[in-house]
Amino acid sequence: LTEIKTLRALYIAGEIKPALAANIKYKTSGNLLDRVSLYQGTITELEVDAIVNAANRSLLGGGGVDGAIHRAAGRQLLAECRKLGGCPTGDAKITNGYNLPAKHVIHTVGPVYDEEQVDKSAKLLASCYRRSLELAVQNSLKHVAFPSISTGLYGYPVKDATDIAINEVRQFLDSESGTKLDRVIFVVWGDEDKLAYERLLPIYFPLD
Ligand code: ADP
């Protein structure tokens, strides 16, 4: 985990420009900056307590990050997933990590983006982040890494999805249960996602 810089370290390195205090609506206590990271690369390589999988309702594997996680974890993961009986959209379930460096996988089911029902999509996506973090705390896990849920095959617009992801994580870290987490890592794959996180992280996690 040491090679993953915190948001504070990214600010210091100049990789992310800190928001000016005058422009921001959210004030953060300094230590929140040490509990959030941005990482570009494959989530399957992270040695953390839990990586989150952007799964589908069957929990039996799929494309994108789901396929990558199942390939890296091995067939035992699929065997455990079969016993879970699927998962509703917006909810999450936990398994072991098997051959992954991560100890656990939290499988959450993002919404397929529906432009006719934007509010519904937004609520379901927010719920994925909240339920995943609740599960992490219930299982005494300290480090959780998220991919950008629903922004691949499920078609969620990247900017909107990023806004929801960061807002939800910020709220959770500020809450009573959030104090039990040491670190949330946002994992981006492509450059578009990376740019969206670099623009929005300073708004939700500004310097004091
Ligand atoms: P969904 O079906 O929820 O849209 P996808 O897996 O298609 O899920 O995409 C979700 C996000 O995960 C996308 O931003 C995609 O680029 C990213 N992604 C794909 N492979 C990986 C990986 N190995 N590690 C991290 N993120 C990944």
What does this protein structure show overall?
By secondary structure, this protein is of the alpha/beta class. Helices cover 37% and strands 15% of the residues. The protein contains six helices and six strands; from the N terminus they run αββααββαβαβα. The chain has helices at residues 7-13, 64-73, 75-82, 118-138, 158-174, 191-204, and strands at 36-40, 50-55, 92-96, 104-109, 143-146, 183-188. It has a six-stranded mixed β-sheet, sandwiched between helices. Strand 5 (143-146), helix 5 and strand 6 (183-188) form a beta-alpha-beta unit. Helix 4 (118-138) runs parallel beside helix 5 and helix 5 (158-174) runs parallel beside helix 6. The chain is globular. Residues 42-44, 54, 64-66, 68, 110, 147-154, 187, 189-190, 193 line the site of adenosine-5'-diphosphate (ADP).
